[in-house]
Amino acid sequence: MIRIENLYKAFEGKPVLQGLSLEIADGETVAVLGKSGSGKTVLLKHIVGLLKPDRGTVWVDRYEVPRLKRRALYELRRRFGFVFQAAALFDSLTVYENLALPLRDRGVPEPEIRRRVQEALRRVGLEGSENLYPSEISGGMQKRVGVARALVTEPRYLFYDEPTTGLDPVTADRINDLMIRLKQELGITAVLVTHDMRSALRVADRLVLLSQGRIRVSVPVTEVFSTPDPELQDFLESIRPKTE
Ligand SMILES: Nc1ncnc2c1ncn2[C@@H]1O[C@H](COP(=O)(O)OP(=O)(O)OP(=O)(O)O)[C@@H](O)[C@H]1O
Ligand SMILES: [Mg+2]
Predict the structure, then answer these.
(1) What span, in angstroms and rounded, lies between the C-alpha atoms of 64 and 75?
(2) Using a 6 Å CB cutoff, which residues line ligand 1?
(3) Tell me, what's the pLDDT at 31?
(4) Is residue 95 classed exposed, middle or buried when 0-12, 13-18 and 19+ CB atoms within 10 A define those classes?
(5) Which of 16, 44, 165 for mutating ligand 1's site (highest number of atoms within 8 Å of CB)?
(6) In testing the pocket of ligand 1, which one of 40, 52, 191, 212 has its CB within 8 Å of the most ligand atoms?
(7) How far is the CA of 46 from the centre of ligand 2 (A)?
(8) Which residue has the CA at smallest separation from atom 31 of ligand 1?
(9) Where are the domains of the chain?
(10) N or C: which end of the chain has fewer CB within 10 A?
(11) Atom number, ligand 1, closest to the C-alpha of residue 44
(12) What stretch of H or E contains 62?
């Protein structure tokens, strides 16, 4: 469970989060929408304790994140997997070594590393690509390796920050299918930050709209089209068939 309570954060006097509250239940996938610069990434960073709030707090399971000491915070972060906008793989390392890295950091023994890497690659449909370098695979495959790398540590929470941005629709849909499958197979709790409305509607259970530092709208995806919020409807415009 993740619970964000009345979060405030400003940078150099410029308010970004202004009393944001949000609860994410176990097993739920929440899509976070919001204009560029509205504070989506800042919100994610507060959840994992990379930023400290000016006011308000964040709970992850039974831990109050802003109160955790360095060591405890480090432990807590192990519950999270991140998939970044850019795949952020090391070009000089093979797929296997890229995936092994977070496990080596944790002192996982090599046979267990091998097992987990193979399992994660199988989950994203890339078994057999252990010895390839990032430059030898497509952008879409790199994204899937990015997802696999988030999975090797067997996280309870998975954060996707713009995972389909910059991909063609077919490749984006492969990533969408993958996110759906992980939700079904692993029951993972996920936060999906995206500008891709199609992706949000396919993958998420609930959609929240961040605006002026708060959660302006929070609705199950099934009710998105019947919610008469102008700002939410603006986001939906992008996927409406053009009538002319
Ligand atoms: N460490 C920081 N120091 C100063 N300002 C910051 C910092 N991090 C974020 N900001 C500012 O906070 C605001 C929100 O940034 P954030 O990255 O959360 O936006 P976003 O909603 O993720 O946007 P995008 O969709 O473009 O990724 C921006 O104005 C940004 O410049
Ligand atoms: Mg962002």
Answers:
(1) 13
(2) 11, 16, 34, 36-42
(3) 97
(4) buried
(5) 16
(6) 40
(7) 13
(8) 37
(9) 1-79+159-165+189-244
(10) C
(11) 18
(12) none
Residue with tokens 């795949």: 87
d(CA 56, CA 59): 10
Q: Please give the angle made by the CA atoms of 165, 170 and 172, to the nearest 5 degrees.
A: 25
Among 194, 216, 212, which Cα is nearest to 32's?
194
Share in percent of the chain as helix, strand, coil (round to 5): 40, 25, 35
Q: How far is the CA of 220 from the centre of ligand 1 (A)?
A: 26
Question: pLDDT at position 236, please?
Answer: 85
pLDDT digits (tens, 9 = 90+) for 29-67: 999 999 999 999 999 999 999 999 999 999 999 999 999
* Tokens 């890295």 sit on residue: 101
CATH superfamily of 1-79+159-165+189-244: P-loop containing nucleotide triphosphate hydrolases (3.40.50.300)
Low-confidence residues of the chain, pLDDT below 50? none
